[in-house]
Amino acid sequence: MKALVYTSPGTVQVQERPKPAIQEPTDAIVRLLHASICGTDLHILKGDVPSIQPGIVLGHEGVGVVDAVGSAVSGLQVGDRVLISCMTACGACRSCQRSLTSHCQTGGWTLGNRIDGTQAEFVRVPHATLSLHRLAPSIPSRAALALSDALPTGLECGILSANVQPGGSVVIVGAGPVGMAALLTAKLYTPALIAMVDLDATRLATARTLGAHATVNSTAPDTVQQLLALTQGEGFDSVIEAVGVPATFALCQELVAVGGRIANVGVHGTKVDLHIERLWDRNISIHMMLVNATTTPRLLRLVEAGMLDVGSLVTHNFPCAEGATAYATFQAAAQHQALKVAIDFDSA
């Protein structure tokens, strides 16, 4: 089968790999229709995740068709069209029992990390019963990619961690796929103000069409002043960092209101500064986590009911043979006006 393989720092190649086989009774084999590239995959290429060595098939997001199931898999049949969760969960270990499926003792972030991932014609999915979700016929396959990771990450790591409330104020720093997912899911909680910050004017325009009340370009010398003016100088109740660099985390600290929350969503490859000398008496909290993807069934129901439109998040798609071009496009997302980039294994 064809697969996108991380071959060396900064490089991915399309290679021929053996088709995976069932190894455990809880496994399923999925034939991919579409996979997508996550910002975390770019961090891997940059060397920000040194535990991942060259030679692995990348990817932890995908939609496909069940090709085979192990004897212990329940609720799934060969031929089912499924969403692959970015987290695999056994459902039985102490972490899973605490809803911390990202720290499942035999699962968690497994695909494209500890075992070969989804950017291939076939993938082996451990703990398939809880890690695959059947898709309703009304949900398009390629659009559903945003539900593998971006939407649950935006909701769990962003909106819920930042305690977004009706009538509150929210600022999202970073208008990439996860930032946009946070925007879409923030609207479900009816805050009075949602502001989006980014250095890409095109992404900010997209944010406005998706429901942001205000946008500010972070290249402006008075970025902080513009944003604080939206709250009459009080700061934001909920501040969401969705980039993963020191400058954006520093900006979030300047924007949080007394009693507010900062939710860190971005993947940080270098240390950041915490200005506790300015924040210690402001009654704030800072929350950081890895997505557990426990909200995926809820998000699927919202999409099926027409209450959450994810169709605009996947903006580009390439056949598997052009996987390197897909990565180059995502790496230069601003130049190509790209949000999520899909890799297609099926023309549908």
Keyphrases for this structure?
globular, seven-stranded mixed β-sheet, 348 residues, alpha/beta
Biggest sheet descriptor: 7 strands, mixed
Number of strands: 15
Residue fraction in strands: 15-25%
User: Number of helical segments?
Assistant: 12
How far from one another are the termini? 19 Å
- Mean pLDDT equals 96
Give the helix/strand class: alpha/beta
The helix/strand order is EEEHEEHEHEHEHEHEHEHEHEHEHHE
Radius of gyration: 20 Å
| Helix content range | 25-40%
Question: Which blocks of ≥5 consecutive residues have pLDDT under 50?
Answer: none
> What best-fitting shape do the alpha-carbon axes yield?
globular
Pfam families: ADH_N (PF08240), ADH_zinc_N (PF00107)
Keywords: Metal-binding, Oxidoreductase, Zinc
Protein name: Chaperonin 10-like protein
Domain Enoyl reductase (ER): 7-343
Plain-language structure description:
With 348 residues, the protein is of the alpha/beta class. It is built from twelve helices and 15 strands. The chain has helices at residues 39-46, 94-97, 128-131, 150-160, 177-186, 201-209, 223-229, 246-255, 276-279, 296-304, 323-331, 333-336; strands spanning 2-8, 11-16, 28-36, 62-69, 81-84, 122-125, 132-134, 169-173, 193-198, 214-217, 236-241, 256-264, 285-288, 314-319, 340-344. The strands form three sheets. Strands 3, 4, 5, 6, 7, 14 and 15 form a seven-stranded mixed beta sheet that branches. Strands 10-9-8-11-12-13 form a six-stranded parallel beta sheet, with helices on both faces. It has a two-stranded antiparallel sheet with strand order 1-2. Helix 5 (177-186) links the parallel strand 8 and strand 9. The mean pLDDT is 96. Residues 7-343 form the Enoyl reductase (ER) domain.
